[in-house]
Specification:
The chain is an alpha/beta fold. The chain is built from 11 helices and 12 strands. The strands form 2 sheets. The chain has a 6-stranded mixed sheet, with helices on both faces. A 6-stranded parallel sheet has the order 9-8-7-10-11-12, with helices on both faces. The protein starts with a strand and ends in a 6-residue tail after the last helix. The relative contact order is 0.14.
Length: 267
């Protein structure tokens, strides 16, 4: 039986094995995904070990996406442009790094009924998550504005200051929270208090990358009547992209989504 792995530190919380193992079973593929917890200092050796086994592929999560980028023999265009790898594929003896976060986000918006072509997107935060989402949205034809608390420290794109939010919200079709604020209710509330939601047109979508629970950010948007998207869809679709890269088989997205939902609280 071939193995796929998800590698991170920590990694016990990862839902990838639940999704992938359901997908393997649904498609009749003799494979399984397991979790491997590896601290940063052991990551390079862990990748060397994975090369030596009949590995189907690997999902890479925090904090290893930058390190994985540096260890690959080849990089996909998205991985090269974003500067981070979240998916590894072994092609014969060549380790190829991919970034499925970017197209996964785009796939999630399309599945929800939003088309990014010619849309205006505002990203809150300028970290690694924002970098992947920005790349995906721009590739899909969107105009992207990145807003940061310290815009002068952002080197990968032009960032706008928080004070520009009202004008940007007025013209936006989609606002995406790419910060980590949604992982903590107090920080989430502080973020929401700083946002000019009243400036958003009713048509505007609001999205978060957080998937484990409904955030105050999403609750506020829904209360105002906006269509919303949480991080579950992106998690499923980036996983589906990885599944197809590893197997050459179209991913059973509905099966993966159901498996993920079974492990999470209702939202």
């Amino acid at each position: 039986m071939k193995q796929a792995v998800v590698i991170g530190w920590p990694v016990e919380h990862s839902k990838s094995p639940t999704m992938m193992n359901a997908a393997f079973a649904a498609c009749g593929i003799t494979a399984e995904m397991i979790r491997i917890a590896v601290p940063p200092e052991g990551f390079a050796q862990a990748i060397a070990d994975l090369r030596a086994r009949p590995m189907l592929g690997a999902s890479v999560t925090v904090p290893h996406k930058l390190a994985a980028h540096a260890l690959c023999d080849e990089l996909s265009p998205a991985a090269r442009a974003i500067g981070a790898v979240n998916c590894l594929a072994l092609e014969d003896t060549t380790l190829v790094g991919h970034n499925t976060d970017a197209p996964g986000f785009v796939d999630a918006t399309l599945a929800a009924g939003m088309h990014l072509g010619n849309s205006r997107v505002v990203l809150l935060g300028a970290g690694g998550a924002a970098r992947a989402v920005a790349y995906g949205c721009r590739e899909a034809g969107a105009q992207v504005e990145v807003v940061a608390r310290q815009p002068e420290s952002v080197t990968w794109t032009r960032a706008r200051p928080w004070s520009a939010l009202e004008a940007l919200f007025t013209a936006s079709d989609l606002v995406v929270d790419c910060t980590s604020a949604g992982l903590d209710r107090e920080r989430d509330a502080e973020l929401v208090a700083s946002l000019p939601f009243e400036a958003l047109a009713h048509r505007a979508w609001v999205a978060t990358l957080v998937y484990h629970a409904k955030t105050i950010f999403i609750e506020r948007a829904q209360a105002l009547g906006h269509s919303t998207l949480d991080g579950r869809a992106m998690l499923v679709h980036q996983g589906a992209r990885a599944f197809t890269l590893w197997t050459g088989v179209a991913a059973p997205i509905d099966v993966m989504a159901a498996a993920l939902s079974s492990t999470l609280p209702a939202v």
